[in-house]
Amino acid sequence: MNIYDISKQAGVSIATVSRVLNGSSSVKPKTRKKVLDVIEKCGYTPNAFARGLGLDSMNSIGILCADCSDIYLAKAVYYIEGNLREGGYNCILRCCGYDLPNKQRAVNLLLAQRVDALIMVGSSFIEANPEDNKYISDAAAQVPVLMLNADFDCPNVFCTMCDDFKATLEATLALLHSGIEDILYLYNSRSHSGLKKLSGYQAAFTSKDIPINKQLIQFYQGSREDIPGVCRFLNELKDQGITFHAVLASDDMLAAGAVKYAKSQGLTIPDELSVIGFNNSLLTECSEPAITSIDNHLETLCSQLVKICISTLNGEEMPQKTIFSGELIQKATTNLK
Amino acid sequence: MNIYDISKQAGVSIATVSRVLNGSSSVKPKTRKKVLDVIEKCGYTPNAFARGLGLDSMNSIGILCADCSDIYLAKAVYYIEGNLREGGYNCILRCCGYDLPNKQRAVNLLLAQRVDALIMVGSSFIEANPEDNKYISDAAAQVPVLMLNADFDCPNVFCTMCDDFKATLEATLALLHSGIEDILYLYNSRSHSGLKKLSGYQAAFTSKDIPINKQLIQFYQGSREDIPGVCRFLNELKDQGITFHAVLASDDMLAAGAVKYAKSQGLTIPDELSVIGFNNSLLTECSEPAITSIDNHLETLCSQLVKICISTLNGEEMPQKTIFSGELIQKATTNLK
DNA sequence: TTGTACGCGTTATCAT
DNA sequence: ATGATAACGCGTACAA
After folding, report:
1. Which among A5, B82, B146, B319 has the fewest CB atoms less than 10 Å away?
2. Mean pLDDT within B244-258
3. Which residues of chain A (29-58) touch nucleic strand D at CB < 7 A?
4. Do A90 and B91 touch (CB under 8 A)?
5. Residue B114 neighbours by CB distance under 10 Å
6. What is the pTM (predicted TM-score) of this model?
7. What does the pLDDT look like over B204-237, one tens digit per residue?
8. Is the four-CA dihedral B311, B316, B321, B323 of positive or negative sign?
9. Rg of the Cα trace of chain A?
């Protein structure tokens, strides 16, 4: 069932059918109705491939994501997909892990699918070595690239992010002001955003003229879902004689591990150990006690990112960078002033 | 840059270029190399729309999911996407919530996109009223429909599921055998799978000739992410004089709420309250103590589902139903024998 | 082994 | 207001 069949049955030309379908130019109401009736009767749907070929677009956006089962990235994908859907776009999802070759392959495959734009969800797409980011600028030479939580300066690349530096700085200062100085910074990602958070932590100490104890900056390289593993890791630190009265984590999962650690050591929270997480996810409410966490307003970020995406595709000029602030949500693992 | 440009530069016809690209029939090695060199030099990629139009397929599968930010559904989408990707398919993701009109719309839009198959992730796609499932059989008339965790009998619909009935039955029996009879069954979904779990619970009592206390079957209709809400809900039940020494939940989030409830009442787990969840998600490890949970082997389910999907698309005959068993993973919220 | 020519189902540009 | 026809770029039957 194609446009020819419809045109025959309606006794008009395919041009008229096309006009009816696309609402373009003027069609006599009577003709329009005749055509619509036939379309309705036959349950006809235009062939999206043919349309795509002619218009060089199928209104689809490629969504790249390291791992859409990650509790935070999943939410981001959800919000982005929802906003794109409302804007009339389809989403081609592709999880590509954290390694460069896979990211490159994923980008190329989506471009080969002729997506209208590329959305990279999460800061893991920026490589430490600047040359390795060529795959992003190459992609941006073909279609707009939208990045969530990343900062990359390149034409046709649009970044929407939370000011992780400031948010972590403020959280650290809040702990310092409450009188805790031996704050363990626990992180599991050396991504751009990950390092921004770390510098926020460091900047807080510097601004207060307090020396930074490098032993209190710890990288956890286990699985992103292994809470008991984080607990073991902290116990090992303790065994090494490293002491701390607060844990500031780059992720709620790590914070949950810290809470487990306190439990294993018989430490009272927040009196003997304060804990702050990042992302304000469901884990903060699941943990006992509920974890104080930095909320980076993901829903707002995503909605803004999609707005920029669609506007850019419509030919409007859009800002290269859009930066929101984070917010410290106080729950039961801290006793801040 | 299209196939004509390449053919000119290589001094061959487009047919030869096409043959080189698709590895079909035989091309003289020398010619092949010549063509490949030009393709390489120009960075040529065949136009996917034109290819799609000719072959009536762009190798893309529609993934429908009520809410891909749900911790369990996100994992399912992740596994499915990964398996499809390895099979050379693209995934068009569409979240459609739990309401029928949105589900129907989502199905129609994906079919209009000419996807090769439709995967419905989660039992929420089956409606209680049989007539309302017409949208599924209608879809199956066009493309294969694969359902995860659902049971729907219809040609061209393939279901891959965990035996939720048996898993819940066994978990309930385990609690009964450990001497606990006042088991609260807490659920938040009346989907097909949700009701199967409930009957498993009931069947356990029936098999032991223990009367079922209807007050101990409770439906929670709050948000799927509101753990404190679940805690409040259980406190209200307690206030109404409903007593129980175990909670069997249809979801880990509900189980986490039960753990919070125990805490709020000062009840010792598992001595005064046993808790069993469902899905064995990250929440079970985040909670304190870690929650005993039913694991339904999601990764296996997804990999099997995709295998069936791809095989069906290749014209192989595949089983309509594939059923795996669940498994009770014992952690710290139960003291079973 | 290679080339020619047509079909796939649209949209858009001209005419009328 | 409507119709005829040329792209769009590929795969492939058929011819050579």
Report:
1. B319
2. 98
3. 30-32, 50, 53-54, 56
4. no
5. 22
6. 0.97
7. 999 999 999 999 999 999 999 999 999 999 999 9
8. negative
9. 26
